[in-house]
Amino acid sequence: MDSFLIEGGIxxxxxxxxxxxxxxxxxxxxxxxxxxxxxVIRRVPDLSDVRFMGRILESVGAEVKFxxxxxxxxxxxxxxxxxxxxxxxxxxxxxxxxxLLARLREATVSLPGGCxxxxxxxxxxxxxxxxxxxxIRVAGGYVYTTAPRLDGALVFLGGRAGPTVLxxxxxLMAATLAEGVTVIESAACEPEIIDLADFLNAxxxxxxxxxxxxxxxxxxxxxxxxxxxxxxxRIEAGTFAVAAVATGGEVTLRGARxxxxxxxxxxxxxxxxxxxxSAGALTIKGGGLVRPVDxxxxxxxxxxxxxxxxxxxLMCQAQGTSIITERIFESRFMHASELMRLGAEIAIEGPSxxxxxxxxLSGAPVxxxxxxxSAALVIAGMAxxxxxxxxxxxxxxxxxxxxxxxxxxxxxxxxxIPGE
Length: 420
Ligand code: EPU
Fold this sequence. Notes:
By secondary structure, this protein is of the alpha+beta class. Helices cover 32% and strands 25% of the residues. It has a four-stranded mixed beta sheet with strand order 21-22-1-23. A four-stranded mixed beta sheet has the order 2-14-16-15. A four-stranded mixed beta sheet has the order 4-5-3-13, covered by helices on one side. The longest helix has 13 residues, at 234-246. The termini are close together. It binds uridine-diphosphate-2(N-acetylglucosaminyl) butyric acid. Uridine-diphosphate-2(N-acetylglucosaminyl) butyric acid (EPU) binds at residues 23, 26, 91-92, 118, 120-125, 159-161, 164-167, 304-306, 328-329, 371-372, 399.
């Protein structure tokens, strides 16, 4: 397994191009299963999760071509079940269930397991499809769904932690081909849902209200092929922004959408960063003292759980104590103990991490446990004195396109050590 070797203490400076959004492209790839015609998606990041999703689509019979950032998908002859192990291994693959069911009226997928950040149930996905008339049976690690017909319905989709992003995506996709009108209440408002709705509308769907908690979908008989340019990855942009502040540097994020990053930019400003917006770019400048900030993760437009670990890495540098509360996933603090190996002082109290900042960090070998935890360790390694080795960076490759090359161009001393 590859690792990163990082020489810390260098301020990042320069410009970085932000890639297309990972969490937008995965459901959009699944949406291509809704039509027999060709779909073209551009600005696609070359990530292991995207390639993995491609293999999942191939396992249900779709043709997948990925070249120069463009995905060409054609689901002319597909079946309602894919490779058990592939689907089980990637949580995002659950969003093939809605499109397969809508197109073929039956679909079987393996039950996605929990993961290191929490149990990650799919009860809301199943409740949503049931509301449209699907019969669902869970047995032997599989979810079996059938629906001789799907009828529009009013579905309240809020759960324990608020709306569900991929659950909204699943229901949205299934409802496009249902009979009549579906109204989703307490729908996820994430920009990735708006991007999916834009793609579905380009395919001929009739969706209104994307980006608000109420989505209205009028079912159509069939969808056709479409072309789509993905939105930029707001989490990649946020990660580079935090890295700029943590190293006391100045980084311009080319192609970022500040309107998708409100909560993160607000916290960075509160922490002392200076932020300049101009057409097509966003410049983040650190360099002064980092101030402590408290934050609580929430559904969009609140502070994203996918940026919590990176902010924790930054708060280790702050002059004072910060309280970081995780409200979306119950065990998303695996990075805390690894940050402590670098000298951070963090105590976990229930859903909150109390970070006593200001102690100088110094390099150490650390272990990445999930995608965003890995990003936090890379940021902390770049801010620390000495050498940090981040093991198991395959987690990073799932969601950050050539991260070490992008950081290297900003001046970071970072190299990939091929694994044994
Ligand atoms: N939940 C339920 N029941 C369900 C579904 C979700 O209780 O049926 C709960 C979850 O346990 C969690 C909350 O609802 O407490 C929100 O989870 P959500 O369903 O929104 O998560 P997701 O759709 O599975 C996506 C992203 C995650 C991101 C979350 C929250 C993709 C592929 N994944 O997951 O991204 O953290 O939304 O914003 O879009 C990442 O990129 O690192 C990542 C983990």
